[in-house]
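ugh ok fine here u go
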Amino acid sequence: MQNRLTIKDIARLSGVGKSTVSRVINNEGSVSPQTRERIEEVIRQQGFTPSKSARAMRGQSDKVVGIIVSRLDSPSENQAVRAMLPLFYQHGYDPIVMESQFRPDLVDEHLHILHQRNVDGVILFGFTGLDESKFSGWRDKMVVLAREYSSLSSVCYDDAGAVHLLMEILREKGHRHISYIGVNQADATTGMRRYQAYQSYCETHGLDATVALGELSYQSGFQHTPDVLQPQTSAIICASDTIALGVVKYLQQHDRNTIQVCGIGNNPLLGFLFPTTFTVELGYGYAGIQAAQQLLAQLVHHAEQQHIIVPCKLV
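structure:
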């Protein structure tokens, strides 16, 4: 019965007119919050989605994809989105960009809205704390970027490889006392994976590990630099270029400019202000292209799910 429901049925169950239901479905104004909430509750209960023919009559595209970023001001995510948009446009898809602000409840809300709009697929920028079971209805039409889930296609960065690459370069240059400033391990990638890669490398090569974990900010890098500084320290690896900015600032103020600072992310600002730093390019733009291509393959060719690791390189 749910599949045969019409806007007229939803209007009857909600106690409103068809035009009011139509405005809610199309996310138009002129509907009071109380009425909108009542109609949306009926829609949720009945599992109603507008038919593609109805959408076509309203002049809406049948080819729409959602892109849920974690932060609109994230340079790395912006690189990925800019790279994927031309591919979607080329294949006739209209992207809808939404922001989760690292909040699982906002992801749920966005996915509900995208389901109501009957979008064809979704690219989700993942983060720690998301419940994979919430995505069960999207398995064939979702690609997650920066996090890996067993039941969904994913495109991930080589977090461990980035740290390993920096450690190898530093050892080749004669550094033996290499400290590390990272992010709380509650963050699975920038935090835990990069920290574990540093610890593992130190254990394998008989190096002393000196670590401080804080936040993903240049203020945190500045604050934690004295925690990892020892008389013999010759290099500091940072879990991100943002942290590295704070570290270099601290070292400059305390006349420790001979220490080699390394970051991850290839932030243009770090290279411009402090050209002697090392940084690793994780491939944000390439990851965006891979995510878009994988989603298009699933939507157009019913391709199998894939788990893709983007290679990193020293800049």
